[in-house]
Specification:
184 residues; alpha+beta; six-stranded antiparallel β-sheet; 25% strand
């Protein structure tokens, strides 16, 4: 058996610019949708099994430790051509014995899923094959953008693991990841 923990972390935790910019985006989105603004969260996965412990997340290419960090892919932010600059590139990290820097800011414990080694091994392998859509773009025309939540939703949906963002928060990108998995 393996344990898969889904962490929900405040967007931009510990930073200054990202929480303010994303908070403004959420207030505008909430006003357009006629609802109250909610805290924004992003997801990360922590897998513990026979092969060891792995963390999977999407993060800016310019963030994190300058040592090995399990990068298995990169993609552009905003526009495809901008991805040529590290300032506009994201990383998909599948990091053995790695860390998720913002776990201390998680407002609640992770959601735990007990599953087989086969399932968690497939998630670890799928991380390297995840779509590299442009971050921040509505790639399927469904009103949701590709981002870090999309990666986690894509991985979990492909693995048949039922997960949903906390109901009292917003997790932009989740529906985009589910749609990407459904489209194959």
């Amino acid at each position: 058996m393996s344990t898969l923990a889904v962490w929900w972390i405040p967007v931009g935790a510990g930073g200054w610019l990202v929480p303010r910019a994303s908070g403004m985006w959420e207030r505008l989105t909430a006003a357009r949708e006629g609802r109250a603004a909610r805290p924004l969260l992003h997801a990360a996965i922590e897998i513990t099994g026979l092969r060891g412990r792995f963390v999977i997340e999407m993060a800016p290419a310019w963030s994190g430790p300058r040592t090995a960090r399990g990068v298995v892919g990169t993609g552009p932010v905003g526009l495809p051509a901008l991805g040529l600059s590290v300032c506009f590139r994201y990383e998909i990290r599948c990091w053995r014995d790695g860390t998720v820097p913002d776990l201390a800011f998680a407002p609640r414990p992770p959601r735990i899923h007990e599953t087989s080694e086969v399932v968690t091994d497939s998630i670890i392998m799928d991380a390297a094959n995840a779509p590299r859509h442009v971050w921040g773009r509505d790639v399927f025309g469904i009103g949701d953008m590709w981002n870090s939540n999309s990666l986690i939703a894509w991985l979990l949906t492909r693995a048949g693991i039922e997960e949903h963002p906390p109901s009292d928060c917003s997790a932009p990108g989740w529906s985009c990841g589910v749609e990407a998995a459904r489209r194959g």
